[in-house]
């Protein structure tokens, strides 16, 4: 993804849904597009995580295709290095050739069914196609396999938000903050959803929102996020 696209994607914060009775001025202009998702990059080679912090429906994970395989044999047949390699290849074409990326990710999971990044990035592809059930399952799998990473939880929250399951989305976002309290993308997601749903009317939530907006003003992921936070702070202080 080009730097320009990355800025625009980050500025969108999270995939937008159509909220009821929400002042559209409370949204950054670019936050109306479902482009907050990011994929694994090659930092630790997975620093650029597919960000869709995507849904906590009461979704049931899909049946495990390896359920008839004995645990000992499954461990022996895992090829984590190959799964890692295929996931990186998929990352390179995630935006330009989604079909090839999906095939590579499925191959990665065949090599190692417990490769968290592959589940996460596959969830991003499903999310982009609005296949929210499948996306939620993949993010849930990634969450369990990557317990110290806030990304899959954020992605799960984005999926839930897209499905208008706002309470569950808040739960997923809060779970991401439990893993990484200073995770700015999650902070941005919570602040934006709080404004979408009008929860700022609650005193406790309002105080938390003010602190988050101040944080975004200082540490926002992009200039668009920082200017958006400044604008929201100004409105709340009037």
Describe this structure in words.
There is one protein chain. This protein has 238 residues and is mainly α. The chain has a single domain, classed as Serine Threonine Protein Phosphatase 5, Tetratricopeptide repeat (Alpha Horseshoe), CATH 1.25.40.10. It contains 11 helices and no strands. The protein has helices spanning 3-12, 71-77, 80-92, 98-111, 116-128, 132-145, 151-162, 166-179, 184-197, 203-219, 223-237. Helix 5 packs parallel to helix 7 and helix 7 (151-162) packs antiparallel against helix 8 (166-179). The relative contact order is 0.16. Residues 2-11, 13-36, 40-49 and 51-75 have low confidence and may be disordered.
Quick summary:
The protein has 238 residues and is an all-alpha fold.
Q: In total, how many beta strands? A: 0
**Dominant shape:** elongated
> What's the gyration radius in Å?
18 Å
Main sheet attributes: strand count, strand direction, barrel closure: none
CATH superfamily, called what? Answer: Tetratricopeptide repeat domain
CATH top-level class: Mainly Alpha
Whole-number total of structural domains = 1
Task: List the keywords.
238 residues, mainly alpha, Serine Threonine Protein Phosphatase 5, Tetratricopeptide repeat
């Amino acid at each position: 993804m080009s730097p320009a696209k990355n800025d625009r994607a980050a500025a969108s914060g999270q995939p937008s849904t159509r909220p009821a009775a929400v002042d559209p001025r409370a949204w950054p202009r670019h936050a109306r597009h479902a482009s907050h998702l990011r994929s694994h990059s090659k930092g630790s080679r997975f620093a650029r995580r597919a960000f869709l912090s995507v849904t906590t429906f009461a979704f049931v994970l899909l049946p495990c295709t390896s359920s008839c395989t004995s645990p000992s044999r499954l461990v022996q047949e895992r090829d984590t290095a190959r799964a890692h390699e295929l996931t990186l290849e998929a990352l390179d074409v995630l935006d330009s050739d989604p079909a090839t990326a999906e095939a590579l990710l499925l191959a990665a999971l065949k090599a190692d069914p417990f490769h968290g990044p592959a589940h996460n990035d596959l969830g991003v592809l499903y999310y982009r196609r609005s296949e929210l059930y499948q996306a939620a399952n993949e993010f849930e799998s990634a969450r369990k396999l990557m317990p110290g990473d806030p990304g899959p939880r954020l992605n799960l929250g984005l999926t839930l938000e897209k499905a208008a399951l706002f309470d569950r989305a808040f739960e997923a976002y809060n779970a991401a903050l439990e893993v990484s309290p200073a995770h700015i993308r999650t902070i941005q997601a919570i602040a934006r959803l709080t404004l979408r749903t009008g929860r700022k009317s609650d005193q406790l939530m309002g105080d938390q929102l003010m602190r988050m907006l101040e944080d975004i003003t200082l540490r926002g992921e992009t200039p668009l996020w920082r200017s958006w936070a400044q604008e929201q702070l100004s409105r709340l202080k009037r």
